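Re: the 240-residue chain
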Amino acid sequence: MPDTLIAFGLAVAAGLCTFIGWAIAASRRTWSAKVFGSVMLLAAAAMVAISGFELLPTALDSGLSWRAAGGWLALGAVIVVTMHVVAHRLDLGANRMSRSALLVAIAIGLHNIPEGAAPFGAAMLSLQAGVVTAIAVGLHNIPEGIAVAAPVLAGGGSRLRALGYTAVATGGEITGTVLALIFAEALTDARTAALLALVAGIMITLSLVELAPAGVHLLRQSSPSTDAPVDTAPIPSPPT
């Protein structure tokens, strides 16, 4: 079984990839719709693939029944849908772009808590599973960083404020990783398997209801003959 520090390092590295998204968004004020759309679709595909071919098989191989796996998958989906509804119903009284950015940061931070423990838990079962899971989580964290930072910048906010909001989102994932490290001894194979199925449900639902539709929408914005730049503001319904 891999050392807990290796598992912790993999999980933290995956969480910090959110800042890559911030760096991409902060590097300029406008990007083409095709770039944003392609990144989101690639992230969505990676999340679905890793959930179906790595997280769920690993959970089932660890003794989780198909019925239990389905229950944890459903719970993950409910978490994402609930956060989506709550984020869109709250009114924090700020301007639209700032409110959107803050809600996205909080929502992503909350859903990232169990997600942060996923690479750790996977690595405790198998180093290969941990590495693959960390890569998948890291890849999907990049568009999450873009989704948090872009509304701040589009609303006239500074790069430093966008960095702060991104840190809020990242904090949830780091928190989940730290909790997994603290309670590593309590993470039995059965509990880890349930956690992986839960995160698979979260990742699949995020991909299907948020990232993929947003990516398709952005690709449709780009003209077949031109790749005209668009402001970062139109990114629709960032992942929660």
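The beta strands are 30-32, 229-231.
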